[in-house]
Structures are given as structure tokens and as C-alpha cells.
Design goal:
Protein name: Alkyl hydroperoxide reductase E
Strand content: 15-25%
Order of helices and strands: EEEHHEHEHEEEEH
GO molecular function: peroxidase activity
Number of helices: 5
Oligomer: single chain
Distance between the termini: 30 Å
Shape: globular
CATH topology: Glutaredoxin
Organism: Kribbella rubisoli
Enzyme class: oxidoreductase
Helix content: 25-40%
Pfam family, one: AhpC-TSA
CATH superfamily: Glutaredoxin
CATH class: Alpha Beta
Number of domains: 1
């Protein structure tokens, strides 16, 4: 698995969000910076704490379009979103299983889930920042804020 390097084109994808709406990364081109937040499992303790930390940071969420991606089915993501009050898109990478995570080099085939990979993609579709944390280690929303602030300085 190869993780897209900073300065490389972000792999495009098309999938559904928790409401069944089609979402394509390239739809944001020219309009908005995007943060892709891959996470292993809906309803798990670490995933819930880190997505809640994002939910509770409107300053960070306002800076870009946040797309949280897991290999869970769409209906699970809807229940998870409703239960946690998450108002950003949760995207399914359920079928073909892990295809999007694989294209970003963050699919764990042995576990059948995404690693904790985060990618900041600018309006031109280029990866500008990324981090991959081990599955048990939550990410810090301050890192997203710093990466997005750096985009605005360019």
C-alpha cells in the first residue's frame, strides 16, 4: 500500500454518505479544501471519541469539508451519525470492501478496516498534508487545524 505523498494528486472516489447521497471527491474541486478522515469502526470507543472531538470543534469543521470514511455499511453509518450527533459526512467504503482506503494506502486487509489515516486535499485535488496513526491511537483535531491554517498561508 502506498500512501499518497504531499504534493501528489489525491485519488478520486465516488461513494455514498450516511444518507445514501452520492459523494465524489472531485465534486469539491475548485470549491473547497477537503479533509479525509479514515477510521476503523463506527461505534468503537476510540473512533467515537475522535469523531466527537471533531464534532465539538466547529472552528475546525468550518475550515474545510470533512469526509469521515470507514468500511462500515451505509445504514450503520446512519445509525452512528444519529446516535453521536455527527453533522459531517460519514462515507461508506463497504463495497468494493476497502477500495477507497486501499487507494490511500490505509486499508488493513487482515482486519478488514481502514487505519487512522488523515489527508488534507486542497481545492486543486492535491494532497497537502497527511498523517497515519496506529489503530488504537486517536488523532488530535489541533493537527487538522494547523494543516488547514497552513493552506490558507499559501
Amino acid at each position: 500500500m502506498t500512501i499518497p505523498a504531499a504534493g501528489s494528486r489525491a485519488p478520486d472516489f465516488s461513494t455514498r454518505n450516511q444518507y445514501g447521497e452520492q459523494v465524489r471527491l472531485s465534486d469539491f474541486a475548485g470549491r473547497r479544501d477537503v479533509v479525509l478522515v479514515f477510521y476503523p469502526y463506527a461505534f468503537s470507543q476510540v473512533c467515537t471519541s475522535e469523531l466527537a472531538a471533531l464534532r465539538d470543534r466547529p472552528d475546525v469543521l468550518a475550515a474545510a469539508e470533512f469526509l469521515a470514511i470507514s468500511c462500515d455499511p451505509m445504514f450503520t453509518l446512519r445509525a452512528y451519525s444519529d446516535a453521536q450527533g455527527l453533522d459531517f459526512s460519514l462515507l461508506t467504503d463497504f463495497w468494493p470492501h476497502g477500495e477507497i482506503a486501499s487507494s490511500y494506502g490505509v486499508f488493513d486487509a487482515d482486519r478488514g478496516c481502514a487505519l487512522r489515516g488523515t489527508f488534507v486535499v486542497d481545492r486543486t485535488g492535491v494532497v497537502r498534508w497527511s498523517v497515519v496513526n496506529p489503530i488504537p491511537e486517536a488523532r488530535n483535531p489541533d493537527e487538522y487545524a494547523a494543516a488547514l491554517a497552513a493552506l490558507n498561508l499559501r
